[in-house]
Write a structure and sequence with these properties.
Blueprint (H helix, E strand, L loop, with lengths): L1 H19 L7 H12 L3 H28 L2 H15 L6 H18 L3 H18 L1 H21 L2
Helix pairs in contact: 1-5, 3-4, 3-5, 3-6, 4-5, 5-6
């Protein structure tokens, strides 16, 4: 139940950024990674697998773990999540990265196993890369337009 709450909050942060502040879904960080992958395709392994392992060890196991042990969940999660967001150098999306950091911190605190946020982070990075691949991106756009037509039809 709590995991669903944190995931929902992360999705809400993305919606707030997009609809509340007019910030597009595509982050500069993601675009940089994708352009690097165009040049060196095997880097997808680093992005999807190795990056999350290193980031979760640093931000959840070390930073969150030390602060959480000395204070409480909220302070540990906030501190590690803000640092996590800042090192992604994508300040228009700082709210979204901070929410993801909170979600990963919660997963770690709840399970006491670093492999859980590592797995969630790997899945998230893999999905972000997948939906940026042109044929997948086109399919998602077509599905989105179809849904807008269906939903729009109810309110016409």
């Amino acid at each position: 139940m709590a995991v669903s709450f944190f995931l929902f909050c992360t999705i809400d942060c993305g919606a707030i950024e997009q609809y509340g502040f007019g910030i597009g879904r595509e982050s500069e960080n993601t675009q940089t990674i994708l352009s690097i992958m165009d040049a060196v395709p095997w880097l997808v392994i680093v992005i999807a697998l190795i990056g999350p392992i290193l980031e979760e060890i640093i931000f959840r196991k070390i930073i969150f773990g030390v602060i959480y042990e000395k204070t409480n969940f909220f302070i540990g999660a906030l501190a590690s999540s803000v640092v996590f967001a800042a090192v992604h150098y994508d300040f228009p999306h700082i709210l979204l990265y901070t929410a993801m950091g909170f979600t990963f911190a919660f997963l770690y605190a709840k399970t006491k196993r670093i492999i859980v946020p590592i797995g969630a982070h790997m899945l998230m990075n893999s999905l972000v890369v997948l939906v940026q691949i042109e044929p997948v991106k086109k399919m998602i756009e077509e599905q989105s337009q179809t849904m807008q037509m269906i939903i729009g039809g109810f309110f016409s």
